[in-house]
Amino acid sequence: MTPQSPKPSCHAVMTGQWTPSTADRSAGRLPGFGVVTDIINGGIECGKGSDSTGAVADRIGFYKRYCDLLGVSYGNNLDCYNMKSFGQISINSTEKSNFYN
């Protein structure tokens, strides 16, 4: 439940305590399960426009199953296909990764 800058905590996202900044919104990062995937595996799975391995789709399926078992809504923004991952910045129109740990 501890954020690792520049990422919010997964808990804050899922409990509605995280509000995306203007930069987050520009990067396609909106509240929902997709941001959680971005927090955990962003550089590997997010921002690629599709899910060639099926890993994101599988994760969304598991998430939906648990939501159904708990009787809660899935919410919006379940995938991260078109999100820029946290720490990815644009310099001179060239995408570069800048990982913070």
Write a structural description.
With 101 residues, the protein is mainly alpha-helical. The chain has a single domain (10-97), classed as Lysozyme, CATH 1.10.530. 39% of the residues lie in helices and 8% in strands. The protein contains four helices and two strands, in the order ααααββ. A two-stranded antiparallel ribbon has the order 1-2. Strand 1 (88-91) and strand 2 form a beta hairpin. It is globular, with a radius of gyration of 14 Å. The two termini are 15 Å apart. Mean pLDDT is 85; it is low at 90-101.
CATH class: Mainly Alpha
How helical, in percent, are the residues? 25-40%
Oligomer: single chain
Gross CATH architecture: Orthogonal Bundle
Poorly predicted tracts of residues: 90-101
Number of helices: 4
The global form is globular
Strand segment tally = 2
Q: Which class best fits the helix and strand makeup?
A: mainly alpha
Q: Please report which band the strand proportion falls in: under 5%, 5-15%, 15-25%, 25-35%, 35-45% or over 45%.
A: 5-15%
Separation of termini? 15 Å
Average of pLDDT: 85
Query: What order do the helices and strands follow?
Result: HHHHEE
Computed over alpha carbons, the radius of gyration is: 14 Å
Number of domain units: 1
Largest sheet: 2 strands, antiparallel
Strand order of the largest sheet: 1-2
Task: From the 3D structure, determine the CATH topology.
Answer: Lysozyme
EC number: 3.2.1.14
Keywords: Carbohydrate metabolism, Chitin degradation, Disulfide bond, Glycosidase, Hydrolase, Plant defense, Polysaccharide degradation
Organism: Carex littledalei
Catalytic activity: Random endo-hydrolysis of N-acetyl-beta-D-glucosaminide (1->4)-beta-linkages in chitin and chitodextrins
